[in-house]
Every structure is written in structure tokens, then in C-alpha cells.
Specification:
By secondary structure, the chain is mainly alpha-helical. It has 6 helices and 3 strands. The protein has one domain: dinb family like domain (Four Helix Bundle (Hemerythrin (Met), subunit A), Up-down Bundle), CATH 1.20.120.450. About 65% of the residues lie in helices and about 5% in strands.
Length: about 170
């Protein structure tokens, strides 16, 4: 498990990456969707906060129980029914950062062999704790890239609007 330290560091950095990717985003930029079937920055951050809350349970289940069942959840339904479009991004960011920090503190204190413990995810099948931690690190990194693409699309959209405004030649 020579890459355990690297994976734990990537996991830890998730909060910083998320905060940096949203710095300066406000107003209509938070709610801009690059396409009808895409999420806004606000929705992505809320999704990550809720995913980290799920991670709290999954990490502890694998660390403490013998081959627990890890229940999948439907992110689209959560976004729709948990009112992501109206939630405060500042609270979602704080929730994510606090839970990620607590998860990291727990993980770094575990013995190395704990990362070989397994759980059975209802969609992904058998996962080790190491698989779960790596997947959670990658999940944030992927969504940070999505936030960056969404913010770039918003800037393009605003530039096109400005170019089409009356009096602009």
C-alpha cells in the first residue's frame, strides 16, 4: 500500500480544491447551468456536501463492521428533492469541509491493514476501504473540473450577452 499516503493526501485536499474552484462565484453564476441536463455550481457543491455525509457512514461501516452493505443513493433525486437550487452554497461548502476534515482525521489514525477491510456496495460491488477513499478523492476532483467548466461556460455566456446588447458594435 505504498500509495496510501498519496491517496489520503488527495482525499484531504478535496476541501481546499472545492473552495478554490468556487472562490469569487456569486449571484447568477452560482445558478447558471451550461445545459438543461447539467448541474449549476450551487447544485454540484450541495451534491458534494451530501456525498460526504454519506461517506461519513460508509467509511465507519467498513472500518468497524464485517463486510457491511453500502447503500447506493440517487444523486439526481437528491438534487431534485433536497432543493439543491435553493440551498446556501456557503453552508454546503462548510459542511463538506468539516465532514471531509473529520473523515480524514479518522482515516489517518487507522492502521494500514484497516484499508484492506471490505464492504459490499449495492451498485459497485465489493470495495475495500482504500477503494472507497480513493473513489471519494476522485469524486471531488471530477466535480471540481465540472465546476471549472461550468464557470467558463458562464463567462462565455455573459460575453455573448454583452456582445449582443444594444449599442455594442
Amino acid at each position: 500500500m505504498s500509495d496510501l499516503a498519496d491517496i489520503l493526501e488527495r482525499f484531504r485536499r478535496g476541501g481546499e480544491l472545492l473552495a478554490m474552484s468556487t472562490t469569487g462565484a456569486a449571484g447568477s453564476e452560482l445558478d447558471f447551468k451550461p445545459a438543461p441536463d447539467k448541474w449549476s455550481v450551487r447544485q454540484i457543491v450541495c451534491h458534494l456536501a451530501d456525498s460526504e455525509a454519506v461517506g461519513v457512514m460508509r467509511i465507519r461501516q467498513i472500518a468497524a463492521e464485517d463486510n457491511p452493505t453500502l447503500q447506493a443513493f440517487n444523486g439526481e433525486l437528491w438534487a431534485d428533492h433536497l432543493d439543491y437550487q435553493r440551498r446556501k452554497i456557503s453552508q454546503a461548502l462548510e459542511t463538506f469541509r468539516k465532514l471531509r476534515t473529520e473523515n480524514h482525521e479518522l482515516l489517518k489514525a487507522l492502521p494500514e491493514d484497516a484499508f484492506l477491510r471490505t464492504g459490499n456496495h449495492t451498485e459497485s460491488g465489493r470495495l475495500t476501504l482504500l477503494d472507497l477513499v480513493k473513489g471519494n478523492a476522485e469524486h471531488v476532483e471530477e466535480h471540481v473540473q465540472q465546476i471549472q467548466r461550468t464557470r467558463a461556460a458562464y463567462k462565455e455566456h455573459r460575453a455573448k450577452q454583452a456582445a449582443q446588447a444594444p449599442g455594442h458594435s
